[in-house]
Amino acid sequence: QVQLVESGGGLVQPGGSLRLSCAASGISFSISTMGWYRQAPGKQRELVAVITSDSGTNYADSAKGRFTISRDNAKKIVYLEMNSLRPEDTAVYYCNAQYWQSWSRSYWGQGTQVTVSS
């Protein structure tokens, strides 16, 4: 059974930091490209950051210099370290896993709410 379980969201003041975690099970984590996406109310889901199986990374322009994605293959966890948070970062953050194993696979977590407000 595939599970992606996000944690670490919450309420933080502007300029603050949060670290999101996504614990994976039931997938081939080591060969997966793992990503963090977010969806704000009334907006489409958008990419925040991705990390490939060989730890290559890519970030949305809005995340560059503030967010860091990393992975621990032994623990099957992907992290998103978020610093200098802004109100516009408020959204539900989703974890995604993509890999090819006989066919293309893509799985999503249930999301964790991040609210940046004073």
State the main characteristics:
11 strands, mainly beta, 0% helix, 118 residues, four-stranded antiparallel beta sheet, seven-stranded mixed beta sheet
% residues in beta strands: over 45%
Please state the average pLDDT score.
97
The helicity comes to under 10%
Poorly predicted ranges (pLDDT <50, ≥5 residues)? Answer: none
Task: Give a description of the structure.
By secondary structure, the protein is mainly beta. 0% of the residues lie in helices and 56% in strands. The protein contains no helices and 11 strands. Strands 2, 4, 5, 6, 9, 10 and 11 form a 7-stranded mixed beta sheet that branches. β4 and β5 (46-51) form a beta hairpin. It is globular and about 45 Å long.
What are the SSEs and their pairings?
Elements: E1 3-7, E2 10-12, E3 18-25, E4 33-39, E5 46-51, E6 57-59, E7 67-72, E8 77-82, E9 91-101, E10 103-108, E11 112-116
Summarize the structure.
With 118 residues, the protein is an all-beta fold.
